[in-house]
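User: My instructor asked us to take a sequence, write out its structure as tokens, and then describe one feature of it. I'm not sure where to start. Here is the sequence I was given:
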Amino acid sequence: MCLPPHAVRVSLDLTGAQLRDFAPHGCQFGDATFVGATFTGASIFIGVEFTTSSRFDDTVFTGQAAFDEATFTETGMFEGARFHEAAGFTRVNFPDSAVFTSATFNATTAFTGHVTFEEATFSGGGTSFDGTTLDRNAFTLDGHQELGAGEP
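Assistant: Let's start with the prediction itself. The structure tokens for your sequence are:
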């Protein structure tokens, strides 16, 4: 399924799909839609390049989800996504942004880069934001502002 460099990108629509041990690591995709899909086993997106729209809204990852070193040319949408095992987003390139509104993380999770969380839940394991800068006036935890004006 991987495309050679500089190939014309094709759309990939796996809306509602049931995918087991999905591993397109190193591939390049045009429009990629996984809305409502269920990934069982490991989902390895390491080094994948999403050259246009990418949607993982309401997607369920029952096993490990690895997006390390992936590139999302446009906004990566993960609204309502559920990660039941470890999720890795280290050294991901989100030149625009990533949206994790109402996403749920139930195990160890690691992020670097620009991401947006609204009503996201992190439970179990640990969550790492190494190398990430948090907006001092916008970061809240359980509805209470944790970083305010004048605080590092």
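For the description part of your assignment, you could build on this observation: The CA atoms of residues 90 and 112 lie 5 Å apart. Try explaining in your own words what that tells you about the chain.
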